[in-house]
Amino acid sequence: MQVTIRLFAAARAAAGVSSTATEPGTLAGIIAELTDRFPGLAEVLPRCSYLVDATAVHGEPAQITVPGGSQVDVLPPFAGG
Fold this sequence. Notes:
This protein has helices spanning 9-15, 27-37; strands at residues 3-7, 19-22, 25-26, 49-52, 55-56, 65-66, 71-75. It contains two helices and seven strands.
């Protein structure tokens, strides 16, 4: 079962897609795979925050396991108020 990735704002613009899917693994591995598939994300992803199944991720991405069937939201910083 794959992981659904939803990209928002600048991440969506950099990738050219609003969503994609990948294999389960660590969040760091998923980020690396996204950068390989969508090179434009390399500049955006370091500034992003992440939600895994609607829960904010805190800590090192290499220590965050994302199981199959999960949803990861990639949220760049938003301007405005």
